[in-house]
Amino acid sequence: MRNIQTFGLLAVILHLGGCAIAPGMHMQDSAGGSTVSVPVLSSDGEYTQEKLNIHEITGELIVEQEALLYPQQTGSASPEQPEYQYHIGPGDVLSIIVWDHPELTIPAGQFRDAKTAGTLVGPDGMIFYPYAGKIDVNGLTVEEIRDALTRKLSHFIENIQLDVRVADYRSQRVYVVGEVNNPGIYPVTDVPMTALEAINRAGGFTLDSDRRQLTLTRQGETYRVDMLALYENGDASRNLLLQHGNVLYVPDRINNKIFVLGEVRNPSSYLMNKGRKTLAEALADAGGVDQNSSNPARVYVIRGSDTPKVFHLNASSPDALILADRFPLFPHDVVYVDTAEVVRWNRVMSQILPTIKILEMASRTDFPLFQGNGN
């Protein structure tokens, strides 16, 4: 009976050799790199299975990461950019005024507004005007229409003076959807419809908007628009000029999450403020590392993108937090604080001790487990 008990206890102790049954997650020694193979996007666009190296967080690495996440914005509006002009299209309503000829200007009555009494551009882009007949105005500016009418009416009216304006903009529109206060359809007018103008017309961003990840869909292609770079860095190149049929989508910031796990006081997911958060801020949001169970020398950032990476910070000394305060996180990064070895051992023992006590109690009684043929 004693031999059976001794053999059982010895087997349990040997089984603990590598703490393989310790509860919870555990990172391998950073010098050994990653232990699992992950899909990595190669230069030829194909995914391959690779084991990742673990990169130490240093000052040089921080400079590299900041350049990726917050590139220097040097773009500006080009002074050679042509002046914006609105081009007439089908559905627009024109107000044509011929001075000293009220019979041409207000034939339907002076009490009707310009939108009602104006000249409608037909689906074929044509307008009809007395004495001038039909004129193709599709794609023309108001100045070009004025010149065309002046040439035609000058045959009938001496020293003609006329003006052309757009009474109602109907032919062109853009769509602003997503996290804006007033999503909807907005007409393109003689005021340039830039991305910033469209957002302002839609009532501005909501509190849940992601201002870094706007998307502009144009002619079957989608472009990313970083409006925060325009607001904070003055990068006017981000203020794209919208065109008829464009869709400007403002996403919510629900995807701008990072995850803090392991030996912290409040492990959870946390939203990034305007798409920004440092490693130190993430740890602070989670209540800091647990002083009783964590191993500050083993803080990791796991980044699962097309080119996954794992970063390691040795935060055992307070001055290492200077690096943590400068290390930028990306959306969906996972911050993991490893467990102290002594805590892992204690957790293992807390699982094993009840079994040992049962075996000890059984050895002091005639428990059937140790009854046999006397061998």
From TrEMBL:
It holds the Pfam family SLBB_2. One of its GO terms (biological process) is monoatomic ion transport. Residues 342-359 form the Outer-membrane lipoprotein Wza C-terminal domain. Its main location: membrane. It is a multi-pass membrane protein. It is found in: Cell outer membrane. Residues 81-166 form the Polysaccharide export protein N-terminal domain. Keywords: Cell outer membrane, Ion transport, Lipoprotein, Membrane, Palmitate, Polysaccharide transport, Porin, Signal, Sugar transport, Transmembrane, Transmembrane beta strand, Transport. PANTHER family: POLYSACCHARIDE EXPORT PROTEIN GFCE-RELATED. Belongs to the BexD/CtrA/VexA family. This is Sugar transporter. It comes from endosymbiont of Escarpia spicata.
